[in-house]
Amino acid sequence: MACASCTTKDGSPKGCKNNGTCGTDSCNKLTVFDWLSNMSLPNGEKPFNWVEVRYKNGRKVYYHNTENLTLSIGDIVATQAKAGHDIGMVTLTGELVRVQMKRKNISENLEEALKIYRKASQKDIDIWQTARDKEEPMKVKARQFAIDLKLQMKISDIEFQGDASKATFYYTAEERVDFRELIKVFAREFRTRIEMKQVGFRQEAARLGGIGSCGRELCCSTWLTDFRSVSTSAARYQQLSLNPQKLAGQCGKLKCCLNYELDTYLDALKSFPKNDTKLYTEKGTAVCQKTDIFKGHMWYAYEGEWMNWHKITTEQANEIIEINKQKKKIASLEEYASDLVEEDTKEVFENVVGQDSLTRFDSPKRNNKRRNNRRKKGNHNNKEAGANNGGNKNTPENKKNPNQNKRRKNNKRKPQNTKNAAK
């Protein structure tokens, strides 16, 4: 099996063109690429007889291939369950399964190992698909039943077993929930064995998946397998605003990506003095107001003069602290700040893009004052011309006698009419 954009053929993986961003069922989340598929084992070595099988929403289980079936990635197999059998897809075979089991601390004890029965037949697949189609309408009804019983829980997902003999209800809750009455309602309504399984909010987001604020698929549903605790101190070290709407992910908890660059920030902060360390000068005591980790700058302000900040480098701050440890004081911070200003003025940045101004395409603003002045001058000249010509239409006298103006117009038109009549 393979998606349209993948070069996998006949179950042998040869690479994916989407580079891990595929969301189809064939190259689904948490899929591992087998880089050892084209390599042969040394003489006398037997292939590792364990297989990794994936179920709905990235759930993976490791099985022992007791029947020595020839399996490859993408095969649909019938596996052992507590009661009946389950249907899943093979996602990894060979030596990489041994590495994954060792990383997840899964023992290779054959007594406790689950087994693979056979490759799934068409009848097994039809029963499995029919059961999968029932999950969505069942989830709607199950949520309504939980609301009617006034239980403080959220049913996030339902997963049927491959033989449709059992349904697992995944739910999240803040506190302990007594759902004994709910199970009776489910068993009476759905006519199947019910299993309730509580998951955390991060596990729920990993199961359901989605798109994060970065525009990519959620890390927990694509490649992240362990959920480390995330605290607000990670945001403080990275100088992020403590806004819960920006720091929280789709699960409602702090984003896992806050831990990705935390180690790099902690290494960079080793050269910085502590923010609560004060600098003692003859002018006064200075307190740290702001730090720039990338440029290595710090801003200090004297006590009582909080509006005036002085920028110095981390080396200068450490130097002043060493002088203070010797019970000595420097003259003022302005000496160090002025040196830093001189260094900054020497830097000349060239316009590599070739753009002089970002507003060069904007239309220039029209000067309305000049236009108004011109109108005023024009009106003043018209008034003077009207006075010289014996009056203007807009004079107060003409406004009072509008009939007189009409008569003048009619008298002007009469000679023209008489000429036409004579002709």
Description:
With 423 residues, the chain is an alpha+beta fold. 35% of the residues lie in helices and 16% in strands. It has four domains: 1-37 and 46-120, no CATH class; 130-205, GMP Synthetase, Chain A, domain 3, CATH 3.30.300; 228-270, no CATH class; 279-345, no CATH class. Strands 2-1-4-3-5 form a five-stranded antiparallel beta sheet. A four-stranded antiparallel beta sheet has the order 9-10-11-12. Strands 6-7-8 form a three-stranded mixed beta sheet, sandwiched between helices. Helix 4 (180-190) links the parallel strand 7 (166-172) and strand 8 (193-198). Helix 3 crosses helix 4 (180-190). The N and C termini lie far apart (102 Å).
Q: How far apart are the termini?
A: 102 Å
Major β-sheet profile? 5 strands, antiparallel
> How many separate helices?
14
> How would the global form be characterised?
elongated
Helix content: 25-40%
Average pLDDT reading? 79
Oligomer: single chain
Order of helical and strand elements = EEEEHEHHEEHEHHHHHEEEEHHHHH
Low-confidence segments: 19-26, 391-400, 416-423
Q: What is the gyration radius calculated from CA atoms?
A: 40 Å
- Class based on secondary structure composition and strand pairing: alpha+beta
Count structural domains. 4
Widest sheet: strand ordering: 2-1-4-3-5
InterPro entries: PSP1-like, PSP1_C
GO cellular component, one term: cytoplasm
Protein name: PSP1 C-terminal domain-containing protein
Pfam families: PSP1
